[in-house]
Amino acid sequence: MAARGSSTVAKILGYQVLIITVVSLGFGVGGWQKAFSATIGGFAAFIPNLYFALRVAGSAEQDARKVLRSFYVGESVKLLLTVALFMLIFQIPNIEILPLMAGYIAALSVFWFALLMQ
What we know:
Order of helices and strands: HHHH
Number of strands: 0
Shape: flat
Strand content: under 5%
Helix content: over 70%
Number of helices: 4
Largest sheet: none
């Protein structure tokens, strides 16, 4: 069961990278700044999700309390990491907000599509 779960997580993370690439290439038609903004927006979603996946996967063989604690800590750190990444991103000059948010939302939407496909 754990192998299937980690396989699903790996697929979701892979699909996130794929959708970030597609969205970035789409915005690339409008120039490199739009493509860059979409890319960092996507990775502002991907990096915290990667952290969370690694955190929870590392606790898969533990008892239920430790798994639950790992889940809550992982989700809390994921939210703080997202805030920190956006704080850093907004320090970059000439960031395009629309592509940034499109990349972020597109990367997050992978979870919804993954749920629909199962």
